[in-house]
Amino acid sequence: QVQLAESGGGLVQAGGSLRLSCAASGRTFSNYAMGWFRQAPGKEREFVASISWRGRMPYYADSVKGRFTISRDNAKNTVYLQMNSLKPEDTAVYYCAAHNREYTLMIPSADANGFDWGQGTQVTVSS
């Protein structure tokens, strides 16, 4: 089973930037699609972005398109989420997710039961 460890969260003012990282271990990282989800207080977890096992075909939620960029470094077993122009509504716990089927895209509508999860990292954007 894969182990996922997120880092890079914190407190930032509106308009600022943060970069989240997720280090994976326990299986061949480069065979699996990866993604980011978030959950704000009182709300359901929602898809943010995903990327294929080769670092192609990124998907983004409409709410973050043009502001967030997902990328991965298969040599470092790490996936990143660069977040720019942050807004207070981006405040949430951000979770890294790994698909548990090889060579399968993580599309926004996919069943989240097919993913493995990190412990989450808090992102707070102040107005």
Enumerate how many helices there are, as a single number: 0
Which residues sit in consecutive blocks of at least 5 with pLDDT less than 50?
A: none
Instruction: State the shape.
Output: globular
Q: Mean pLDDT, as a whole number? A: 96
What percentage of amino acids are in beta strands?
A: over 45%
Measured as a percent range, the helix fraction is under 10%
What is the rounded distance between the termini?
39 Å
Radius of gyration: 13 Å
Strand tally, please?
Answer: 11
User: Strand-and-helix sequence, N→C?
Assistant: EEEEEEEEEEE
Q: What's the story with the biggest beta sheet?
A: 7 strands, mixed
Instruction: Assign the structural class, choosing from mainly alpha, mainly beta, alpha/beta, alpha+beta, or little secondary structure.
Output: mainly beta
Write the layout of secondary structure elements.
Blueprint: E1 3-7, E2 10-13, E3 18-25, E4 34-39, E5 46-51, E6 59-60, E7 68-73, E8 78-83, E9 92-99, E10 115-117, E11 121-126
Parallel strand pairs: 2-11
Antiparallel strand pairs: 1-3, 3-8, 4-5, 4-9, 5-6, 7-8, 9-10, 9-11
Describe the model.
There is one protein chain. This protein is mainly β. It is 0% helix and 47% strand. It has strands at residues 3-7, 10-13, 18-25, 34-39, 46-51, 59-60, 68-73, 78-83, 92-99, 115-117, 121-126. The strands form 2 sheets. Strands 2, 4, 5, 6, 9, 10 and 11 form a 7-stranded mixed beta sheet that branches. Strands 1-3-8-7 form a 4-stranded antiparallel beta sheet, with no helix packed on it. A hairpin with a 4-residue loop joins strand 7 (68-73) and strand 8. The termini are far apart.
